[in-house]
Amino acid sequence: MKIVVCIKQVPDTKGGVQFNPDGTLNRAAMLTIMNPDDKAGLEAALRLKDQYGAEVTVLTMGLPKADEVLREAMAMGADKGVLVTDRVLGGADTWATSTTIAGALRNIDYDLVITGRQAIDGDTAQVGPQIAEHLGLPVISYAEEIKIDGDSVIVKRQYEDRYHELKAKMPCLITALAELNEPRYMTPGGIFDAYEKEVTVWGRKDLKDVDDANLGLAGSPTKIAKASDKVRKGAGEKVALDPTESVAYIMSKLTEKHVI
Amino acid sequence: MDFSLDKKHEMARSLFKEFAENEVKPFAQETDETEHFPEAIVEKMEKLGFMGIPIEKQYGGQGCDILTYIMAVEEMAKVCGTTSVVISAHTSLCADPIQTYGTEEQKQKFLIPLAKGELLGAFGLTEPGAGTDAQGVQTRAVQDEATGEWILNGSKCFITNGKYADVYIIIAITDIVEDKRGRKQKKFSAFIVEKGTPGFSFGTKEKKMGIRGSATYELIFQDCRIPADSMLGQRGKGFPIAMHTLDGGRIGIAAQALGLAEGALERTIAYTKERKQFGRSIAQQQNTQFQLADMATKVEAAQMMVYRAAMKKQQFMADHKTSYSVEAAMAKLYAAEVAMEVTTKAVQLHGGYGYIREYDVERMMRDAKITEIYEGTSEVQRMVIFGSLLK
Question: What mean pLDDT do residues B373-386 have?
């Protein structure tokens, strides 16, 4: 079985967020981590590898620095890494990103593609299903359990109050939730091995069957009107009243602000 | 000269840091309080290969370098002194001498499971009457002429990982020879002894000031018969093997000391920013600022010395003619004294809270003291360093 896991290097939300003048994230200036949902997707692939035997390829699109996240995935146990990087691909929204990744996937032989549900930077949850659409693959999103049954996958799809068990014939695409599992740690030897391996680097010219009009910032229908870091709220209002008066005061404020 | 770490070392550090924060730190206080050996943590470290970081892959290890191993000890020590010494004693004092001096059979039998973490290792040189003066060792090994077996008699004390370890490197007298002037001289040899061997038992568990979760036991040998092929290295070479093993161990302890100092400094920076006196944080008082600046400078210097000693040992791995004993002694001497100074100042800057067990710096100060004592006291390090100056 051949599995491709799409992963993304995202800003570590514990660190600060910085923006470019055009409103896109200044990724080069921020501390980064592997997107948590993607990491769960990778762990799911590695467990399938442990259980059934599989070749796991990790694929990412990003700055040359995104090489790190591929090495991290390989240090966890992925077999191969592919980095799609090119200046013309920069500033991509979900449409341009999924077009790019689908263009890369057309060069790779796979039975299963796993992506994270969504990235903690954009939170769109669009890229995974869009890739499936570009490639004409069945998609099962929000997976909380994945099993292999012959040439099919059986996936528990999470809902708020229940789950659906869905079966799809491979090749197909699954989007994974961080709750799917607890990703394994890297191993020290795995890290050393990961830096011995070659990462395949592809640019625009290596993407198959894609139109330039659908790539990069220019090919992105999404236009960012404004972006900002979290705005700090001012200090609250302090009042010193007895409990009964306090309740009355709070109620009047809530009414005034049309909360109740 | 490049002082920056390359990417794989940066990534290894982030792994150790993440593991330490998630898996070790939450239990550090409990480990100290209950004085229980942290078996669950050690089991997790075994699964991730942390017990064989610098051991060659062909012998079940991770195939990384000494620096990577040292960073693992450092990162664990930042959160838990006990956990860091479990790795250090196992790796430096047991797996390393078997990798360096063991026969192929010994490596197959012991090094592979040690490196994989299936077995835990320890080392026994110290005896009630033989500490800094290691020549005072009394434990004897006599060979049974008929079977070739060795019969051990004697005892070892203050043995780290005692009782929990499966494999012990034991130094014992095998011969008494006369030197040119007719004086009697003990000749030592090193042996690999397995737990469970009849005649090998454990005495008291020591109650310690710090690293309280670390198991420190007395080992007792009473007519303990071990196989003829248990000797590690050549007969009569036990003393140089022990000294060389301790040279390596010192880098591990230096890393532990460094980690303790770094951990205490981190916590103190955070605390002084929060603690308010006279209407502002104590980090805004010049006394605090100057103290923290001095602490940080010493920690930085200690880190350079510890990493340099690790790199020198790496050179030794490639070329056994290289000596790293002076670098190791200097690194341990300095890092241990920095650990003691920084943790003591950390407690002072925490004020009354620093004396309360709920605050990590209280434990770190107690843990730091041992780094000036074990695997050669600071005085022994000075002897080693001065010895090299006379050459």
Answer: 96
Return mean pLDDT, chain A.
91
Span B190-197, average pLDDT: 98
What are the residues whose beta carbons fall under 8 Å from the beta carbon of B333, sequence distance 6 or more? Answer: B378, B381, B382, B385
Residue A171, preceding peptide bond in cis (omega within 30° of 0): yes
Yes or no, beta carbons of A191 and B8 under 8 Å apart: yes
Chain A residue with the nearest C-alpha to that of B46: A187
C-alpha dist (Å) from residue A82 to A104, A199, B261, B321: 9, 6, 41, 43
Which of B140, B175, B174 lies closest to B156 in space, CA to CA? Answer: B140
Chain A residues closer than 8 Å to B62 by CB: 187-189, 192
Residue keyed to tokens 């014939």:
A169
Structural domains in chain A, CATH included, are 2-214 (3.40.50.620)
What letter would DSSP give residue A231? Answer: P
Q: Within its chain, how far is the Cα of B146 from the centroid?
A: 38
User: Nearest-5° angle of CA A170, CA A156, CA A55?
Assistant: 40
What ipTM was estimated for this complex? 0.93
Q: Do A68 and B7 touch (CB under 8 A)?
A: yes
pLDDT band with cut points at 50, 70 and 90 for residue A251: very high
Other C-beta atoms closer than 10 Å to the C-beta of B217 total 23
Question: For B170, phi and psi rounded to 5 degrees?
Answer: -120, 135
- Are the beta carbons of A187 and B49 separated by less than 8 Å? yes
Digit-coded pLDDT (tens) for A20-51: 887 777 777 778 899 999 999 999 999 999 99
Contacting residues of B for A186, CB less than 8 Å apart? 11, 15
Q: Does the structure show a pLDDT above 90 at B391?
A: no
CB nearest B53 (choices: A185, A188, A195): A188
List the one residue out of A214, A200, A258 whose CA is nearest residue A78: A200
Cβ atoms of A46 and A56 closer than 8 Å: yes
Q: Which residues contact B79 (CB under 8 A, 6 or more apart)?
A: B20, B21, B24, B25, B28, B263
Measured N-to-C along each axis, helices B25-34 and B360-371 cross at an angle, to the nearest 10 degrees, of 70
A15 confidence band (pLDDT: 50, 70, 90):
low
Nearest-CA residue of chain B relative to A72? B11
Q: How far is CA B128 from CA B123, B142, B209, in A?
A: 15, 21, 19
CA-nearest residue of chain A to B45? A187
Q: Do B64 and A186 touch (CB under 8 A)?
A: no
Cβ–Cβ gap A185/B15 under 8 Å: yes
Cβ contacts (< 8 Å) between A75 and chain B: which residues?
A: 11, 15
Give catalytic residue positions of B: 375
